[in-house]
Amino acid sequence: GSASCLRSACVPRAGRRAGRTRQTHMQDDPPPHAAEPAARKKKSRGARLSKAEREARREARLASAADDAAGGAPLERRRTALRSLVASEQWDAAAALGCESTVLALELLRALAGSGRERLLTHTARRLADVLGAASLAPAVEEAAAAHRYRDAAAIVRGVGVSGASCSSEAGGAGGGYSFGGVHELALRCFERGEVAEGAEILGGEPRLQLLALREMVSSRRAAGVAAQYLGSLSLLPHPAAAAEVALGREAASLLHGAPALAAAAAEAAEAIQAALRSAWPRAEVQPYGSGALGLGASGSDVDLCALLPGLPTPLSKQGRAALAAPLRRA
Predict the structure, then answer these.
(1) Residue 110 lies in a domain
(2) Which residues does 307 contact at the CB level (< 8 Å), separation at least 6?
(3) Domains in the chain: how many in total?
(4) Which residue of 30, 77, 93, 292 has the smallest Cβ count within 10 Å?
(5) Cα-Cα-Cα-Cα dihedral sign, residues 140, 142, 147, 153
(6) Over the chain, what HEC string results?
């Protein structure tokens, strides 16, 4: 007891008062888990908007688009603001401004094209297309393709979401007015210009796009020299039906068993015709060619022969054709 009194006496009055104050505050403070509710967060760009907010934004965008279409000082001020944002690489703010009108959207895409930032170009095109529609960005793709900047054009096409489609304004396809094919068409243009590496980068490792390009190469004979690189994409094709497999097997068997018989028949016919022609042209030679000579003919294939007749004038006169017909009839 005396020790407690001694400690109490040694503490100054002001100190005892401060200690009581600290005790009071500690008792009044809420526990850590009962903290005050956090301030309401600012709504992010991707948050769900109310109907009134969406309508207000739409009306503001339409008003801005009308001002931009009219041109004049308001458009120039907004263009200057956009160029300032691009120069300072404030891409989020630049995209937000570009979403307000097609004029500014195309201006922004032109600024990004040729910068080597294909991923940023794709992201920006996606954001612009979500607001303005894919068709409004078609001029940017056409301008890039006309300037042979096919990688930039492909980046925009990927952004608007029609990378594998072939769209046209007449068909009203998924591209909403595009007059060109998808990414594979841009890659084919690169191949046709001899820019094989750039075309391969555009197709990337996407087998679906590679298959579209391969189909076009085979059907239209475009850039056929690089078609072999994309034969692996054929694995995406559906498995053939049972009837088709049976028909294919029969054709393969016909080739397997019919080719030797056809080759023998071609050799026999060539020998007979050569012997007949040598009665009139001693140096005549007859050679088989085509599927029979290559061993690829089926049982119903015809026989192709080539007659070499040294000294025979060309083009053949009426008398020459008659002289040739006589030994052929004997053969």
Answers:
(1) yes
(2) 273, 274, 277, 284, 285, 286
(3) 2
(4) 30
(5) positive
(6) CHHHHHHHHHCCHHHHHHHHHHHHHHHHCCCHHHCCCCCCCCCCCCCCCCHHHHHHHHHHHHHHHHHHHHCCHHHHHHHHHHHHHHHCCCHHHHHHHHCCCHHHHHHHHHHHCCCCCHHHHHHHHHHHHHHHCHHHHHHHHHHHHHCCCHHHHHHHHHHHCCCCCCCCCCCCCCCCCCCCCCHHHHHHHHHHCCCHHHHHHHHCCCHHHHHHHHHHHHHHCCCHHHHHHHHHHHHHCCCCCHHHHHHHHHHHHHHHHHHHHHHHHHHHHHHHHHHHHCCCCCCCEEEEECHHHHCCCCCCCCCEEEEECCCCCCCCCHHHHHHHHHHHHHC
Is residue 111 in a domain? yes
Comparing 23-27, 223-227, 270-274, 283-287, which segment has the lowest mean pLDDT? 23-27
Residue 309 and residue 280 in contact, taking contact as beta carbons nearer than 8 Å: no
Question: Checking DSSP bridges between strand 304-308 and strand 285-289, what pairing results, if any?
Answer: antiparallel
Q: Is the pTM of this model over 0.85?
A: no
Q: Scan for tokens 């994309």, then name that residue.
A: 230
Determine contact, residues 94/82, Cβ cutoff 8 Å: yes
Say whether both 127 and 219 belong to one domain: yes
Residue among 106, 115, 91, 173 nearest 139 (CA): 106
Shared domain for 180 and 315, answered yes or no, is: no
> Are the C-beta atoms of 108 and 121 separated by less than 8 Å?
no
CA distances from 30 to 19, 35, 36, 39, 330 (A): 19, 7, 9, 18, 119
219/276 same-domain check: no
- Give the domain-ending residue among 175, 206, 236: 236
pLDDT digits (tens, 9 = 90+) for 195-241: 999 999 999 888 888 999 999 998 888 888 888 889 888 888 888 88
In this structure, what token pair is assigned to residue 235? 């694995």
Domain with 206, as residue range(s), is 59-236
> What is the amino acid identity at position 243?
A
Looking at the fold, whether 167 and 300 belong to one and the same domain comes out as no
